[in-house]
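> call design_seq(struct)
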């Protein structure tokens, strides 16, 4: 897998409890999670967060991008409605 480092982000997001719908991560926090620097394009182009193969990492983790701040260097991930069977 070409973007295997983003699998760490997928795993991180996938472990967020179901009752948490929005998750804010700074670019620095994401870099710690993936154990690597984000590419310069992630800090310059909003499209980097929405239209490339690495986007599968948060999609597979059950999230989509809600908000990006290139100026303040953070991303808000929004939990996507998942098809789950209610328990109890």
């Amino acid at each position: 897998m070409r973007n295997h480092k983003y699998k760490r982000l997928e795993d991180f997001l996938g472990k967020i409890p179901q009752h948490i719908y929005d998750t804010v991560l700074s670019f620095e926090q994401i870099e710690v999670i993936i154990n690597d620097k984000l590419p310069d394009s992630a800090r310059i182009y909003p499209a980097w967060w929405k239209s490339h193969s690495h986007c599968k990492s948060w999609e597979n983790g059950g999230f989509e991008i809600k908000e990006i701040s290139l100026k303040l260097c953070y991303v808000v991930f929004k939990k996507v409605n998942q098809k789950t069977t209610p328990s109890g």
